[in-house]
Amino acid sequence: MKDPQDYAFETRAVRAGQHRTNEGEHSEAIFPTSSFVFESAAQAAARFGGQEPGNIYSRFTNPTVRTFEQRLAAMEGGEACVGTASGMAAILATCMALLKAGDHIVSSKAVFGTTTSLFNTYLTRFGVAVSFVPLADLAAWEAAIRPETRMLYVESPSNPLTELVDIRALAELAHARGCLLVVDNCFCTPALQQPLALGADIVIHSATKYLDGQGRCVGGAVVGDAERVGKEVFGFLRTAGPTMSPFNAWVFLKGLETLSLRMRAHCENALVLARWLESLPQVERVYYPGLESHPQHDLAKRQQSGFGGIVSFEVKGGREAAWRVIDATEMLSITANLGDAKTTITHPATTTHGRLTPEQREAQGIREGLIRVAVGLEAIADIQKDLARGLGG
Ligand SMILES: *Cc1c(COP(=O)(O)O)cnc(C)c1O
Predict the structure, then answer these.
(1) Which of 150, 270, 290, 301 is the most exposed place for a label (fewest CB within 10 A)?
(2) What is the pTM of this model?
């Protein structure tokens, strides 16, 4: 594939980044090797000296990881991508490469729990300050920016209440104030949302979720321009070491081939489920950007090409009623993971958001009756039937 951008998204997802070896293999090869050999001492010296491009050691580059990176870069529309050992390693590498002591981050409040811990517990130790703002409130983002702010950090849609931010507007604000906009695109994936085209500078992925799509491997990625990602984030990773293994890269790159199809199916199932839940008298409220009742439905239609696979809903009767629904399921997996072919069900108030104080939870809208479903690829009728057991519906 000469220039992947000459091809449609689905085609890039299947073919970008493949470099066939002289064995003529059709499927991408896995290169499980820690180091690479040189033809001569002079070649080794030239590789190490940077005069000759090529592989040296798999902490630096690996052909299978490179195929994954080039494919994901082509799908997100970025110049460069680096694979990482996990989604958290992608966030860490981005911060370590692009920030220094004295810098400040503004982040949305509703971000992945471990991201909050990384910012609050660890980055602050190295002199990087963090402020948290309500996701959808552009005025709050603007008010939180200080002269030393370098990075705005956001997830859209948010977990678990599926709140959105206008990425284009936030990118304009970031650039007007000399900041980078970093978007964690885990929930939508490039199949539904391409933040770089909306003006974001860097995209973060937990490949563990939809990119794999079948719950097998932990991994992550950073996508962006050649300078910041291709040089600086890459430079941190090859030095510090939280890089992606070739085996995991192979699993993820095969996952990318079916990403469009899978995301479409996740979206279709999720919309049917959300509409059904909204019709039940036992359900207080449903959170899904695809519903007309979602306050940002129009923004979701504009910014995303699908509404995603995560549906949250609040049942009447608080924790007791929510746990009854969860415990009555026979098929759904009670787990906090998402982005799997298998539907998962979670009680955020006592798991993913259990470490917050009741007041913090209330402020974020995480009530005791809230249930999050990451809708999988099973028949929607079976998913409904399983949830209906505890809903009496
Ligand atoms: C899971 C997740 C992460 C962290 O990814 P890991 O692969 O578990 O390290 C980051 N952001 C979001 C939105 C996630 O869901």
Answers:
(1) 301
(2) 0.96
